[in-house]
Write a structure and sequence with these properties.
By secondary structure, the protein is mainly beta. It is about 5% helix and about 55% strand. The strands form 2 sheets. Strands 1, 2, 3, 6, 7, 8, 9, 10 and 11 form a 9-stranded antiparallel β-sheet that branches. The longest helix has 5 residues, at about 65-70. The radius of gyration is 17 Å and the shape is globular. The two termini are about 20 Å apart.
């Protein structure tokens, strides 16, 4: 049994590796569940569907196009951890324009997708 804990992720968008900082997050999607209350007691729960999503911080340099990052749609995104786990986000899109932080030279990138498969 491996004792290594995930510490990094390599992110590739449509075959192009993205220069990301540590701390990327992946949500494979599924369901949020919340309690259904009535008469002072819990009767059960309801589910709400949640789309797969990924967030990362991209390092910005002269070759980094904010427009290209902001315009990503229909992408195949590979999220590969340093422990060997791999996830593919299919038909992914950027959820909000890429925002450049000029203080630390980073761009916030948030994406959602139609599906997330563990490979």
């Amino acid at each position: 049994m491996s004792k290594k804990i995930t510490g990094r992720a390599i992110i590739t968008v449509d075959g192009k590796r993205v220069k990301t900082d540590s701390g990327a997050t992946l949500n494979p999607g599924g369901s949020n569940r919340s309690a259904v209350m009535g008469g002072g007691e819990v009767h059960g729960y309801q589910e709400e569907d949640v789309a797969p999503s990924m967030e990362c911080t991209v390092f910005h340099n002269k070759e980094t196009s904010l427009r290209e990052l902001s315009d990503i749609t229909g992408a195949t995104v590979l999220f590969e951890t340093d422990t060997g786990a791999q996830f593919i986000l299919r038909d992914a899109w950027v959820t909000e324009p890429a925002a450049l932080n000029s203080k630390d030279g980073t761009v916030s990138l948030k994406m959602e997708a139609i599906a997330c498969d563990e490979v």
